[in-house]
Amino acid sequence: MRSARPWGDPEVSVVVPVVERHGDLQQLHREFAAELERLGKTAEFIFVVDDQLRDVVPALKEIQERSGRDVSIILLGGPFGEAAALTTGFAKARGERIVTLASYFQVEPAGLGPALQALDDGDDLVVGRRHPRIDAPFNRLQSRLFNGIVHHLTRTDFHDVSCGFRAMKKRVARELNVYGGLHRFIPLLALQRGFAVREIAVPQRREDCPTRYYGTPTYLGRLLDILNIFFLTKFTRTPLRFFGLLGAGLFAAGVLIDLVAVLEKVFLATGISDRAVLLLGVLLMVLGVQTLSLGLIGEIIIFTHARNVRDYKVAEVIRGPLPGGPSALDDTGARQISTRQAS
Amino acid sequence: MDVSIVVPLYNEEESVGALYEEVRAAADRLGRSWELLLVDDGSTDATVARLREIAARDPRVRVIRFRRNYGQTAALQAGFDHSLGRVVITLDGDLQNDPADFGLLLDTLEEGYDVVSGWRRDRKDKLVSRRLPSLAANWLIGRLTGVEIHDNGCTLKAYRADVVKRARLYAEMHRFLMPMMSLSGSRWKEVAVNHRARRFGRSKYGISRIWKVFLDLLTVKMLLGFTTRPAKWFAVLSAPFLAGMLLAFAASVYIDLSLPAGHRYPLIFPAITLLCAFAFAHLVIVGIFSELVVRTGDFRPAETALSLSQPKGVSA
Description:
Chain A has helices spanning 25-38, 57-67, 81-92, 112-120, 137-154, 170-175, 186-192, 216-234, 239-267, 276-304, 339-342, and strands at residues 12-18, 43-49, 71-75, 97-100, 125-130, 166-169, 197-202, 314-319, 335-338. By secondary structure, chain A is of the alpha/beta class.
């Protein structure tokens, strides 16, 4: 069994964003550190604490005193939320493998082994799926609903996309741009960038089981997040396809309604001027054109910035054994692999 | 380097070998230095393995492998980004384009054009599913954008590298490549090229849903219009609402005058007047906002004047 090396970078960086509710962080650290040691991995723990939870700092200091330099505590300057906490933790991480954990007991530490193994086998990001689920039926219903909507809108197959337990290679973490509510969709963001993503089943912890109720604002926020990820994964380069279709639909509905009203006036002699339905039609047309105009603005923004944006990600540039050094034009951060090495 | 040849490939394991042989034979006959850039657009078959073999044999070949499938526009863009030649030639990976046309394209380009596009005058594809939709699309694109070109869908094209590297390509703009190039002031010409029946596999880049193409066309149309004055474009869009406002206002006044005193006055027309006024105002405001967006972006019509004043002539 290897102890943590006093020099060099650890193999695994565990990032724990402490932003909302949290469990016994000392026990969390103890269990996962023990599992990592059992797997023979050197590890560091990075606790990123949101400003409003600064009460946990003394407990974290105790962990730090016990474990030495392999535990870092980062205190955010404000209530910036989970996405900001993760991004900060990723930037600080030194290991080639990065594991994220929820700050409460969500899954058993036993999931670490298979997750890290999957990364060694070639996957770029692994997300946990709490399975089998043993928690309250209401929790499961919420989760199914959330993942069902995401599944239908993005046409991807994740059962527990927002699970806090993830393992990824360092370059994935460095490349992801997580902000706002997007931390819930990290697997989707990685897929979009062409990384290999896999979901693995991880036993759920008993502590994760009590029924959770959230307020209406939370649910509305989630819905907005879903809409956001739907737009971001599909229409970032073609905003008019989203706003245009929406706008055209609204406009067409308005035209149709008013057309019916006018026909009724002409053929059935129904009075038109005192019917609210005429107003509804006009309102829909106005809304349609406004939506469409936003799409057009979006297209102008994309066009005027297109020169700096590249749609593609290069996995590698393959070149023959002969002349020429590395291409100066290869600005995509691609690995340069000669065919002799690769085959 | 004189000529860079760019080929986007997606699941073309059967044809890449023959493609390489044909391109090499044709390019060697040009009597110029050349390179071949094969862009693998996330193929799931043995294409990449074949490409590795080809790259290992010939130092003039480079393979750019994508992480996943990004579409033809991105593949072409990657080819342009990585090309070192003074001229870039693109062609399809399915062997339907004939590399023997390279010479014709280059000669035409040297007459002083920035882009020379192939025209598959004698197209060897199915009539109903491919040629008729393409005819309709080309006609519509020509009418709406003013770039009247017979064949927007032909990948076989030759470009002056400094012009095409500056082109703005994204999303699925490869369908509107010529209008987009003309947007930046490129001089273009169309020449008839050979087209051959498909030997392997089946077509990958089909027509996607029609509404996408229409919305993209609207975008291109707007972009063509806004390069000079974006606010004006939105003003045109707002005109129907100005008309609606005036009509509804006239109706309100007419009703007001024709009703006997004390009669209940219907509020519907004044309401429509207000709604149309709001929509009109909104579009004018958005138009002014679009000026701001354009000014803070990096598109300058003046920039394209540079591309026209570049010295012509391919051969070193």
